[in-house]
Backbone:
């Protein structure tokens, strides 16, 4: 995603909770973009659509978990989603 300051989100202001929320939002956005592209394709791959839906739902669940996460859990979520975004950007 070219508009993200850094794919590890370490350059963003705010605490680890805000950085984790930004990382999760970026991944949710990636899933949304991929779902839209797949649905608009002439012959959507329903298996891929389902995989994307599940990934997005998992990310949305983690996003909600951030509301009550302690700093250690927020840091873990940030690392997981920053790594996932790097994978997406590399593909």
Residues:
């Amino acid at each position: 995603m070219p508009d993200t300051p850094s794919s590890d989100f370490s350059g963003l202001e705010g605490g680890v909770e805000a950085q984790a929320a930004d990382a999760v939002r970026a991944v949710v956005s990636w899933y949304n973009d991929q779902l839209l592209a797949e649905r608009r394709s002439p012959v959507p791959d329903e298996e891929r659509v389902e995989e994307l839906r599940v990934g997005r739902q998992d990310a949305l669940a983690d996003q909600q978990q951030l509301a009550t996460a302690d700093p250690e859990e927020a840091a873990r979520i940030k690392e997981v989603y920053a790594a996932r975004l790097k994978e997406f950007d590399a593909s």
In short: The chain has one domain: 16-90. The CA atoms of residues 41 and 69 lie 38 Å apart. The longest helix spans residues 16-40.
